[in-house]
Design a protein that fits this description.
Number of strands: 0
Largest sheet: none
Distance between the termini: 18 Å
Order of helices and strands: HHHHHHHH
Structural class: mainly alpha
Shape: globular
Radius of gyration: 13 Å
Helix content: 55-70%
């Protein structure tokens, strides 16, 4: 039984849009931020505000509840190995707050976010390749 409160279709849409956005040549990501509220992560969103893929992704994330945004961040952490599946609820709890409030900027600040989200889904027994 999945512990995810986000439907697979929405997750896969976000993965696809993140992949499309970060594949573009003009997107340059600085070093990973120390916190999700650092201004440069928000600057990425401002610099590319006309980007269709970015707009779709940020809208989809913006429509999520705080719990769902926290799960999205936790899914990336799970996918990159920061947490194991047995620590899922701890990861979600740790993502609530600044991380979930600034989820779109925080996620886009990580160049491997699409792959990490996909790996997190696989850990839960799902895949966007189905």
């Amino acid at each position: 039984m999945s512990l995810l409160h986000i439907d697979l279709e929405s997750l896969c849409h976000i993965v696809e849009k993140a992949r499309e956005f970060q594949a573009k040549e003009e997107v340059v990501l600085p070093d990973v931020p120390d916190s999700p509220s650092e201004d440069w992560a928000l600057q990425i969103l401002a610099d590319h505000s006309e980007d269709h893929s970015l707009g779709e992704m940020t809208r989809a994330i913006g429509e999520m509840s705080q719990r769902q945004r926290a799960e999205l961040v936790a899914l990336m952490w799970l996918g990159r190995g920061d947490y194991g599946i047995e620590d899922w609820e701890s990861a979600v709890d740790d993502a609530i707050g600044d991380y979930s409030l600034n989820a779109a900027a925080y996620l886009l600040a990580h160049p491997m976010v699409a792959n990490d989200l996909q790996e997190g889904l696989i850990a839960h027994g799902y895949s966007c390749d189905q």
